[in-house]
Design brief:
Radius of gyration of chain A: 24 Å
Strand order of the largest sheet of chain A: 2-3-1-4
Largest sheet of chain B: none
Shape of chain B: globular
Number of helices of chain A: 5
Low-confidence stretches of chain B: 1-7
Number of strands of chain B: 0
Shape of chain A: elongated
Largest sheet of chain A: 4 strands, antiparallel
Number of strands of chain A: 4
Helix content of chain A: 40-55%
Mean pLDDT of chain A: 91
Largest interface: A-B, 12 and 10 residues
Order of helices and strands of chain B: HHHHHHHHHHHHHHHHH
Number of domains of chain B: 1
Strand content of chain A: 5-15%
Low-confidence stretches of chain A: none
Structural class of chain B: mainly alpha
Oligomer: heterodimer
Strand content of chain B: under 5%
Distance between the termini of chain A: 21 Å
Structural class of chain A: alpha+beta
Radius of gyration of chain B: 22 Å
Number of helices of chain B: 17
């Protein structure tokens, strides 16, 4: 389990800029994206429509994980029933043949849905490297409000374009209310 | 409230069929097709009246189900105060406005009641305990009263919503939307009940000894997915023809695609539930209906429905890109529409041909005749006004709609 974030080497983790509103955040994200930054993130207490596009985030591979898990679950559910009813413990039930596949459909469907749902939840957690018990952003006092009423952009120091002073100035020029340099 | 400036976002020329556009000719072309179909029926029908009435019934039910699906689509948009679909609503409105035409096309069936419905033959119930038991419901006068009631109610709702919406184009009165929204809930209930009983009268009573407690839902599921399939084809075709291409966006197409995906799955769920319980319980008064359909050459048709009405569209429509592209969405829609026809055919025809699948030239003739009337009526209405409700208070919201 990735309980601790992978961290950039060097004295700084990155720079944190605080924004007043979702609209400010979205505008700033589009500019950071256009400036060519790649290792950065945005933080908001609630989902902001259009933020993913403003950040230039590509499509998530999660649907493929869900599809794979769903099909695996459906296949497993079907094979399990075949194994039980037609192979391991053949019993005549209501005069039907041992291998009565219509009777298997509900379980096949349910196990497919179950695996798909588990794939969605754990796939999402895995892709986000969660649960994560420590992160350098937690050192920032002002960042506590990321789950309350403030909006942030954090640009990490392993971004090729990162520069402690220039990047801070960029965030300020984009309308950040406060800019904080975070140590590793 | 949406500011007036946003409401003027759409210019009339963006949402009308321009003069000289090829789509202006569709009503005439469709009417000619309808005429040819009627002539073909008149030539071929007298030699085989039973086949004619069954073929006519299949095509009648197919296009009627599309109109009723459209009515449900529009009602649900009002009831849920849906914003995204306003730009598509007029396609639904012109589709359900064909209900009075369908009422006229129902009349020929009255000449063939004895050919279609064995319980209408005088004396049928005399030596048949079950038909005697069902006679208080299954008798010709009550059947005719019910049919008149269904068409009366559907036409009333259709005219109410059609007039309301086109009237708002002129007045711009937002109270029209509020009034139609309030009426939508009761209208959905009335539609659900009438549609259920209509499917019992016109399809289930072909086999009057059969019992199914979920046939009404099955017919509804087919009718709604059928209309969504039609909507996919029409909206993609409109964009392709340069109509509404600045209005209907990939975002709208994606939502139609989601509906199509969801309701092919819903249809499969209902269809399977109906089959599954009957297959499992194995009661003679239920299973004989399916037995006819899984024997001989009806079995491939049943398997085609399973694979073509569910499995293929399920995987085809799963991806995002397929739904956001007009051409690929239209292919999916056309396929599902064809499968919906097969579904209705599969429900009706085995009564006439229990021995197996027997296609007939009359099937095609009836399809062209009724389809021609349906398309002619809908496309004629499309020319008469804007292709979207121009002054609906939610139009701006619909135009700006984006999937997250």
């Amino acid at each position: 389990m990735p309980l601790v974030a992978r961290l950039p080497k060097g004295p700084y983790f990155g720079i944190l800029g605080e924004f007043a509103s979702p609209a400010d955040l979205q505008r700033a994200c589009a500019r950071v994206r256009d400036a060519g930054f790649t290792r950065w993130d945005a933080h908001s207490p609630f989902p902001v429509h259009g933020l993913a596009r403003a950040m230039g985030i590509g499509r998530s591979p999660l649907p493929w994980i869900v599809l794979g898990m769903g099909l695996t679950g459906a296949a497993l559910g079907f094979v399990l029933q075949w194994w039980v009813h037609a192979y391991a413990y053949p019993l005549v039930i209501s005069g039907k043949p041992y291998f009565s596949w219509p009777a298997y459909i509900p379980i096949t469907f349910e196990v497919g849905v179950l695996f798909g749902a588990l794939g969605a939840v754990f796939g999402m957690l895995g892709l986000n490297r969660l649960p994560m018990h420590y992160h350098p952003l937690f050192k920032s006092k002002v960042f506590e409000r990321a789950s309350d009423d403030a909006f942030f952009i954090s640009i990490e120091s392993w971004d090729p374009q990162f520069d402690p002073s220039a990047t801070g100035k960029l965030l300020e020029s984009l309308g950040a209310r406060s800019v904080e340099l975070l140590e590793s | 409230m949406i500011p007036e400036s946003d409401r003027a976002a759409l210019r009339p020329e963006q949402a009308t069929i321009p003069p000289g556009h090829p789509w202006n000719r569709i009503p005439v072309i469709a009417a000619v097709c309808a005429l040819l179909g009627v002539v073909a029926c008149a030539i071929l029908g007298p030699a085989n009246p039973k086949q004619f009435f069954f073929s006519w019934l299949v095509s009648f039910l197919f296009f009627l189900s599309l109109a009723l699906g459209a009515l449900f689509f529009v009602l649900i948009q009002y009831a849920s105060q849906g914003g995204w679909g306003i730009v598509l609503r007029r396609i639904g409105e012109t589709t359900f406005a064909t209900v009075p035409v369908m009422a006229a096309l129902f009349l020929p069936l009255l000449l063939g009641l004895n050919d279609l419905y064995s319980w209408t033959i005088p004396g049928a119930a005399e030596h048949d305990a079950l038909l005697r038991w069902k006679a208080p419901y299954l008798n010709v006068p009550f059947f005719l009263i019910r049919a008149a009631l269904y068409f009366g109610i559907w036409s009333f709702i259709a005219v109410l919503y059609y007039r309301g919406s086109s009237g708002q184009d002129v007045t711009g009165d937002p109270r029209v939307s509020a009034r139609l929204r309030r009426l939508a809930g009761p209208a959905i209930i009335v539609l659900a009940l009438t549609q259920t009983f209509a499917s019992i009268d016109w399809i289930m009573s072909l086999t009057p000894h059969w019992y199914s407690t979920m046939f009404g839902v099955y017919f509804f599921a087919g009718s709604f997915v059928g209309f969504i399939a039609l909507l996919s084809v029409v909206s993609a075709a409109m964009r392709g023809a340069g109509l509404l291409d600045t209005v209907i966006s990939a975002e709208h197409l994606q939502d139609i695609g989601k509906f199509l995906f969801a309701f092919t799955a819903f249809w499969a769920y209902i269809a399977f539930s109906q089959f599954f319980l009957m297959w499992y319980a194995n009661l003679p008064e239920e299973t004989f209906w399916f037995k006819t359909r899984i024997e001989g050459s009806w079995l491939p048709v049943s398997l085609l429905l399973m694979a073509g009405h569910f499995v293929a569209p399920f995987f085809y429509l799963m991806g995002r890109r397929v739904k956001r592209n007009g051409a690929t969405l239209a292919v999916g829609g056309a396929w599902v529409l064809a499968m919906h026809f097969v579904d209705i055919y599969w429900q009706v025809m085995p009564t006439l041909h229990p021995e197996g699948f027997r296609p007939s030239a009359l099937d095609v003739a009836a399809l062209v005749a009724i389809g021609g009337c349906f398309v002619a009526a809908a496309s004629w209405l499309m020319r008469r006004q804007a292709l979207v409700p121009m002054r609906d208070p939610r139009l701006a919201e619909s135009l700006a709609f984006e999937n997250v």
